[in-house]
Amino acid sequence: MHTPLCKHAVGEPEEYAQVAWERGLKGITITCHSPLPEGISASVRMDEAELPRYFEMVARAREAWEGRLEVWLGMESDFFPGTERYVENLHGQADFQYVLGSVHPHIKEYRTRYYDGDWTEFHRAYFQSLGDAAESGLFDCLAHPDIVKIWVRNIGMWRSCGRISCGHWIGWRRRVWPWN
Question: Distance (Å, rounded) from C-alpha 134 to C-alpha 127?
Fold first, then answer.
């Protein structure tokens, strides 16, 4: 679960806990997008200066729901080759109960580094990054390893791979993802 600090989520950890409790869950893990150095994809993740606020938000929810619902401190940390030491240091700043690793091939910095017009090579680079993330020891689990499948190679836009039509998806994307 993300927080508003990652700039694409709505709801506070205490609100998530309330809904989880109402639905009979025993616990939740908050996994906001971690900062990355040099402003990498800064429009969709918390800033490093917001880490203390993030820790406080999760601690407040944990205290409010103590004895009724587990609230874990987590993080969704990107694996972006060359930032491993930064991510490792970031993970040392708190007692995270669960850390998701992710590779986001749609962010500008990733596309700039790995896409040269050859989609096969772009996908190979993505899966190499995913494998490197898994072997890095930095994460407890990998998030959405199939995210690369929703890339439309001819128009460079995200699309639905399910029942939603591309037009509907793009309309939704424009409402939800204003940074593109």
Answer: 10
